[in-house]
Each structure stands twice: as C-alpha cells, then as structure tokens.
UniProtKB/TrEMBL annotation:
The record marks H138 as: Important for catalytic activity. Residues 9-181 form the 3-hydroxyacyl-CoA dehydrogenase NAD binding domain. Belongs to the 3-hydroxyacyl-CoA dehydrogenase family. One of its GO terms (molecular function) is NAD+ binding. SUPFAM superfamilies: 6-phosphogluconate dehydrogenase C-terminal domain-like, NAD(P)-binding Rossmann-fold domains. This is 3-hydroxybutyryl-CoA dehydrogenase/5-formyl-3-hydroxy-2-methylpyridine 4-carboxylate dehydrogenase. NAD(+) binds at G12, S13, G14, T15, M16, G17, D35, E90, K95, S117, N141, K274. Pfam families: 3HCDH (PF00725), 3HCDH_N (PF02737). Coiled coil: none annotated. Signal peptide: none annotated. Pathway: Lipid metabolism; butanoate metabolism.
Length: 311
C-alpha cells in the first residue's frame, strides 16, 4: 500500500464520490469528502455505513488507519492533501471552475484526477495553472464494487504522473487500464456501441425489453465477464468472425443521435430508478428492491470472478 497517498480529497459526493472515498479509506488513506451541498454530504454520510458493509463483503483490500471525513469546507478538505479526485457533474465549465478554486488553494505538487466520463483531459487542462497535474481517472459505477479504473493522460499530463497513478490504483488492488485519450474513453465507447444496437432493436420491435435483457445478460455479459472480447475471438475463431462480420457489420445500427423513443420518455419525466419509471415501470418499494438485488448480484459476481483465473 506504499503508493497510496496518506491524504486524499474527493470533490463531489453524489453517485460516485462516496464509493470512491470509501475504497481509498479502506485501503488506509485519510480521505476528505467535500461537496457544496449540505444535503449531498448528509446523504453520503448516511450511505457510508452501507458502502463499508459492501466493501467488507467483497473482501476489498483493507489497511488500518483509513478514514473518511465529510464536509462543505473546501480549505479543510484540502489541508495536506496529495491527491484530489474530482467527481462533480459532467459539465466542462463547472469542472474548470472547480479546478480554478482548487488551484487557488493547493501547491503545484498536488495531483488532480478527474472522474469525467469522457470530456477530453486535454481540453480540461487548458484552463489549469499547472496543466501537467491533471489526469483522467475513470471509475466505473458503483465505484466501490467495480475493481477497474481507466487512466487517461491528456497531452499536457506529466509523464511521471501516469506511472504514479497506475501505482496508486494497484495499491488498492484495482486493475488500471492505461488508454490514449479519445472521446468517451474505452469503456463507454464499447458500452455505447452495445447500447446503440440494443436501443435500435427495441425501437424496431425485434425483441422485448425482457428478452433483450436476458439475451445480453446470458449470451454476452456472462461470457464476456469471464473471457473478454479479444480472447472471445480466439475462442470463436477469427474465420467465424470474418464470415459473420462480412454481412452483419453493414446491417448494424449507425445512428448518431439518441433514439427518439428515449427522448420521448425523458420528455414524460421517465428517467429510470430516480423517477420510478424509465425502460420499466416501478411500483412502491420496487426501486429499493431492485437496487438491493443489483448490489447483491454484483457482490456475488465479483467474489466469483476474483476467485477464477484471468483467461
Ligand atoms: N454516475 C455514474 O455512473 C458515473 C460513472 C463514472 C463516471 N461518472 C462521472 O463522475 C462525475 C460525477 O458523477 P456523479 O454521477 O457522481 O454526479 P452526481 O450529480 O451524482 O454528483 C455530483 C456531486 O457534485 C456536487 N457538486 C456540484 N458542484 C460542485 C462544486 N462546485 N464543488 C463540489 N461539489 C459540487 C453536487 O452537489 C453532487 O453532490 C461526472 O463527471 C460523471 O460523468 C459518473
Ligand atoms: C449508461 C451509462 N453511461 C455512463 C456511465 C458512466 O460513465 C455508466 C456507468 O454505469 O458507469 C452507464 O451505465
């Protein structure tokens, strides 16, 4: 755990911040979780116990001395910090304002890692006093359960920082995936390619939502959780891939915009779990039950996947 910073600060305690803070703290870091919203901090404090239980259940690496403190005082959150992880909403101007507020308070040696889902690091760094300190650190949701982090240097990122962040990620036993900068990074490019085809199949009435979920979960997710797409091609045979891709690729969806039926749902206020309806409808208590089922499933799957060889 020697590469782990002693003190780290997480900026933004919404969906991602608390799980990120808890993961670092369990590995031994003193973590300060900061938000501008008192309500968000209160929610994060309430959720922290649950997240700690989940980390214990998956046997997440643990070292003594770690802690999370919660607050809306930025100066206090930054005192002595070595690593800042920014997890505020995905808006370039907001992130750049946050970076300016941070840089007014920290020394040049402090690392800023951004959890952006895909805004180019190079663009974000343009407004920084010390552009070399900014690097992409894309956690996957839920961050305390998915043990993989994409690391994306921008054009201005210090070369030494790349290796340093790789070592930090390894120190809490996550898998660092180093990438070149590209919109959406690798994980979301693959996910959005899958989602584009899925939404087109639904829109054309080819399959029901239930059928689609079962097909992707068992036919694709189950297999890919064990072998990965590159190895899958070796298992299937490159000749089979050529035979199928030669007629299928030209038939796949290539739309460049969000599907109209998704836009219509959003216009009706159907956003998913957060509005008790989206792709599916949810009655009283259904969303909480589904959330629990998802966490239980992810815990069980992570334990299993951690216990089998990387093939
Ligand atoms: N939600 C996901 O599944 C997910 C996954 C990977 C990456 N990300 C990325 O992580 C980042 C955060 O996403 P999220 O889903 O946690 O967002 P969120 O909206 O749930 O939470 C953001 C938090 O930031 C706070 N905030 C707003 N302005 C602030 C400021 N100036 N200073 C401090 N805090 C401020 C808000 O009060 C809120 O609590 C985004 O860049 C997002 O794209 C999200
Ligand atoms: C649909 C979707 N879009 C973005 C993200 C975060 O980058 C996720 C996720 O689960 O992490 C997602 O599911």
């Amino acid at each position: 755990m020697s590469s782990l910073p002693s003190i780290a600060t997480v900026i933004g305690s919404g969906t991602m911040g608390p799980g990120i803070a808890a993961t670092l703290a369990r590995a031994g870091a003193t973590v300060r979780l900061y938000d501008i919203s008192e309500d968000a901090i209160a929610r994060a404090e309430a959720a922290y116990g649950v997240v700690q239980g989940v980390l214990a259940a998956v046997d997440s690496p643990s070292a003594p001395g770690g802690s999370v403190s919660f607050g809306t005082d930025l100066d206090a959150a930054l005192e002595g910090t070595e690593l800042i992880i920014e997890a505020v909403p995905e808006k370039l101007e907001l992130k750049q304002k946050v970076f300016a507020d941070l840089e007014a308070r920290i020394g040049d040696e402090v690392i800023i890692a951004t959890n952006t889902s895909g805004i180019p690091i190079t663009t974000m760094a343009e407004s920084l006093r010390v552009p070399g300190r900014l690097i992409g650190m894309h956690w996957s949701n839920p961050p305390h359960l998915i043990p993989m982090i994409e690391i994306i240097p921008g054009q201005a990122t210090d070369e030494a920082l790349v290796g340093q962040l790789v070592d930090i990620v390894k120190a809490f036993n996550y898998v660092p995936v180093l990438e070149k900068e590209i919109p959406g990074f690798v994980e979301n490019r693959v996910l959005y390619a899958i989602l584009r085809e899925c939404m087109a199949l639904l829109e054309e009435g080819i399959v029901t939502p239930e059928g689609l979920d079962a097909c992707v979960k068992w036919g694709i997710g189950y297999k890919l959780s064990v072998i990965g797409p590159t190895r899958l091609l070796d298992m299937a045979g490159l000749d089979i891939y050529q035979a199928v891709s030669s007629y299928l690729n030209k038939d796949l969806d290539v739309s460049t915009d969000t599907p109209q039926f998704i836009k219509d749902k959003i216009a009706e206020g159907k956003l998913g779990f957060k509005s008790n309806g989206g792709m599916y409808e949810y009655g009283e208590g259904d969303v909480d039950a589904k959330r629990k089922e998802i966490v239980t499933g992810l815990i069980a799957a992570r334990k299993t996947l951690s216990s089998i060889p990387n093939v």
